[in-house]
Design a protein that fits this description.
By secondary structure, the chain is an alpha/beta fold. The protein folds into two domains: 132 residues, Nucleotidyltransferase, domain 5, CATH 3.30.420.40; 168 residues, Nucleotidyltransferase, domain 5 (2-Layer Sandwich), CATH 3.30.420. Helix content is 44%, strand content 18%. It has eleven helices and ten strands. Helix 3 links the parallel strand 4 and strand 5. Helix 5 runs antiparallel to helix 8 and helix 8 runs parallel beside helix 9. The two termini are 30 Å apart. The structure holds 5'-O-[(R)-(carboxyoxy)(hydroxy)phosphoryl]adenosine and zinc ion. It is found in: Cytoplasm. It is an enzyme of class 2 (transferase).
Length: 334
């Protein structure tokens, strides 16, 4: 096939996505079919429902991506898929579809770690320079990752309880905002004319770990106490206070990691990387500290298959292929 044309599949959570990317950078198609509407009435993702929806849509999404890309199946060089972590039933649908394509088209199969995908979403739009630090903030993950070379990852800090996006979604739920709540809190925080100050979880002075469950509890208890006194807290003030607390800790630790590890770049990745407040504050702090900050465009921050193709391209170049007995793993390590 033509050089490095990879078809990638992502089904780890509630998005069915198929992309075709040439040479790790040229996105020929990136079709994302979201199940959000289906899960909204439950207030969160229901694993069995997600799995069934992926089964219903995957074939159509593959066809759409191929049509849109203008690429012939015979021109593909590899099939990539998110192997984990994620919801096991959801991951299985993508893995089985990828294996079937790889087998029938006689192409190599490449299993990709979901977080490697989020990190390499940056590669679709930026030139990466190592060593680098990535702040990964999504619905399931909050991690500071040190990479000394392409394809190498070392987690230097992570959340000890809730992921940042999870905290956003739980606080949003308490404010009666629709799922997923992150974008709504972001908007409210932006509109707010004041903030209710919330605690910050710094943990031990040298730690790169995070904790957001205490903050979430603080928000819920502030809402409850106001409720008992018959006062209504202004939702935008709550949102601003919560967001400031999350962002300040994320930014502070990310900048400290870049300095300590002598990183050439700071990358932002994951769904919460779409957060306006986070992007603005990181940009300001990086500018002051002379640190180059890279972030994907908003459409490549949340789950999509183009980022999986970008991560797979590195493996393809290195000839790191998976066998046809590749297994979906819900808690695959990076
Ligand atoms: O990366 P992603 O699409 O899925 C996971 O791998 O988890 O991230 C989804 C998460 C959700 O928790 C959502 O509320 C959050 O990203 N999110 C945001 C924003 N946009 C999405 N959180 C804060 N501000 C946003 N603008
Ligand atoms: Zn994700």
């Amino acid at each position: 096939g033509s050089a490095g044309c990879i078809l990638a599949i992502e089904t780890s959570c509630d998005e069915t996505s198929v992309a075709i990317v040439r040479n790790g950078t040229e996105v020929l198609a990136n079709v994302v079919s979201s199940q959000i509407e289906t899960h909204q009435k439950f207030g969160g993702v229901v694993p069995e429902v997600a799995s069934r929806k992926h089964v219903e849509t995957i074939t159509r999404i593959i066809e759409q991506a191929v049509d849109k890309s203008g690429v012939k199946l015979g021109d593909l060089s590899a099939i990539a898929v998110t192997q984990g972590p994620g919801l096991i039933g959801a991951l299985l649908v993508g893995v089985v579809a990828a294996k079937s394509l790889a087998y029938s088209l006689q192409l190599p199969l490449i299993g990709v770690h979901h977080i490697a995908g989020h990190i390499y979403a940056n590669q679709l739009v930026h030139k990466l320079e190592y060593p680098l630090i990535t702040l990964v903030v999504s619905g399931g993950h909050t991690e500071l990752v040190h990479s000394e070379a392409p394809g190498k990852f070392r987690i230097i800090g992570q959340t000890r309880d809730d992921a940042a996006g999870e905290a956003y979604d739980k606080v949003a739920r308490a404010l009666h905002l629709p799922y997923p709540g992150g974008p709504h809190i972001d908007r409210l925080a932006h509109e707010a004319d004041a903030a209710i100050t919330m605690p910050r979880a710094w943990l031990e002075p040298d730690s790169y770990d995070f904790s957001f469950s205490g903050l979430k509890s603080a928000v819920l208890s502030a809402l409850n106490q106001a409720n008992m006194k018959g006062i209504k807290l202004e939702p935008s003030h709550v949102a601003r206070g919560f967001q400031e607390s999350v962002i300040e800790v994320l930014v502070e630790k990310a900048i400290r990691a870049v300095k300590e590890f002598g990183a050439k770049q700071l990358l932002l990745a994951g769904g919460v990387a779409a957060n306006r407040g986070l992007r603005t504050m990181l940009a300001e702090r990086c500018e002051k500290a002379g640190i180059p900050l890279l972030a994907p465009p908003l459409s490549l921050c949340t789950d999509n298959a183009a980022m999986i193709a970008a991560a797979a391209f590195l493996k393809w170049e290195q000839g790191k292929f998976s066998s046809l007995d590749l297994k979906a793993e819900s808690s695959l390590s990076l």
